[in-house]
Prior knowledge:
It contains 7 helices and 10 strands. By secondary structure, the chain is an alpha+beta fold. The protein folds into 3 domains: 7-50, no CATH class; 58-171, no CATH class; 192-310, no CATH class. Strands 4, 5, 6, 7, 8, 9 and 10 form a 7-stranded antiparallel beta sheet that branches. A 3-stranded antiparallel beta sheet has the order 1-2-3, with no helix packed on it. Helix 2 packs across helix 5, helix 4 crosses helix 5 and helix 5 packs antiparallel against helix 6 (272-293). It is globular and about 70 Å long.
Amino acid sequence: MARNTNINELLFPVECKPVYLENQHNPIRGFKAVTGRSGNDNEVVFSIVSENYQLITNFEAVEMGKEIHGQLFPNATSDSFEVFNVIAPKTNGSCHIDIIDKNYSLNVWAKEVYVPFVRIQNSYNKTLPLKFQIGFCRKLCNNGVIFEKDLVSISMAHTKQLYRNTDFSNINVSHLKKFENDFIKKTKRSTEIKLPRKYFLPLAAKVLNRNFDLNEKNDKKRNLIKQKLYEFAYAIENYTDKYISIENMGETAYSFFNVITDYASNTTHLQARSTHELQAKCGTWLNLIGEQVSNPMFTWEEEIKEYDYIISTKKS
C-alpha cells in the first residue's frame, strides 16, 4: 500500500460565508456556507450549515493531534511527530489523518513490528465529527487497523455548544499502554486459532460487510453484482495466497487478519471513507474472535453459513 503523507493538500483556507438567494441582496438568516479553495483557485462550497455550526479546520484538528501525540508517546518531541498517512476523498470534504511518533514502534513478537498511530477525523461536509482514534499498522507492509475507537474522551460535532478548548494534559501514556497490551494479547491469540483456508473468502465478505445479491432480477444489475463479487474474490484469494505461505502464519486467524487488513488498507480499490470503515471492522473482529471461538458451540461452518455461496466463486 502506497501511503499518502501530503498533509498540505488538506490545509487549504476554509471559512464560513453568508448564503444568498439568487437576485437577493440580503443573506438568508440562520444559515451560512462552509467554503474553501482546495487544490486550485476555484472556490468550493462544502456544505450549508446553521448559525450554530462551529468551523473546526483541519489545521486546528492537527494541532490538537500534536497535543495528544505529546502526551501519549514517551520522549515525544516536535521533531519526532510525523504524518504517517492521509485518507481523503478527491473533494477533500472530509479526512482521516494518521500521526505517529517516528521513534516509537511496538514489538508484538520477534518479527512482527507494529506502529501505533492516532487517527484524526474531521470534515467540512458534515459527514464526520471531529474525533481521535487509535490504530496499529503492521510495519512490514503498512496494513492498518483501527483497534480502539475511544482513545480520547472527545468526539465533537461541529456545534458551538459542544466546541471546547479541550485540555489534553490529562492524557497519559497509560492509555496507549493499555491498548498496546490488549492488541498484543489478542494478536497472539489469533495465531493459535486454526482457520481453514476455504473459509477465508466467505468470512472476509462477512467481516467487511460485503454483500452480493446474486438473485437480483435485473440482468444489468445482476451482472454488475457478479463483477464486483469476482473482483472481491480475486483480491481476497490473492491476499490469502500471500499470507498463508508466510512462515508461522499458515491457515490461522492471524493470517486471515492480515488478509482483511491488507484489503482494507489498499486504497487502489476502495474509496477513502471505506478504508477507515473497513479498518475499524478489522479491529472489531480481532477484538472479538478469541472470545467467539472459546464458545463450545462455535464452528466456522456456522459462522459463515450466510456467505457460503461465495466459497466456490473464483475469477474465471
